[in-house]
Specification:
With 97 residues, this protein is an alpha+beta fold. It is built from five helices and three strands. The protein has a three-stranded mixed sheet with strand order 1-3-2, with no helix packed on it.
């Protein structure tokens, strides 16, 4: 098992250690993590592994966010987008049924 921890308190850019047969990677953040930006940073961090967590594959997965997207295209996928919020609520309601 491998865990990656990003912390403002990290003293080095990168450090590896192990704990109970798990590999732990500790990194300094590229930008300081604050109360105001931590959710956006978590979202962006998750995007790098979207193929691991995704329930879709193929061409649908190719529509995932990438560096060639315009700001408008990315905004449509962002979790604070009202359409995305509504879709999440519909999805959650269907799970309860």
């Amino acid at each position: 098992m491998q865990y990656e921890i990003i912390s403002n308190k990290a003293t080095n850019e990168y450090r590896e250690t192990s704990l109970a047969k798990s590999r732990i990677i500790i990194r300094k953040p590229k930008v300081p993590v604050t109360e105001k930006n931590y959710m956006a940073l978590q979202f962006l961090d998750m995007l790098k592994d979207v193929d691991v967590y995704s329930e879709i594959s193929g061409t649908d997965l190719q529509k995932r966010p990438n560096d060639r997207m315009s700001d408008e295209e990315f905004e449509q996928l962002a979790p604070w987008n009202e359409e995305v919020k509504a879709e999440i609520k519909r999805w959650a309601a269907n799970l309860k049924k």
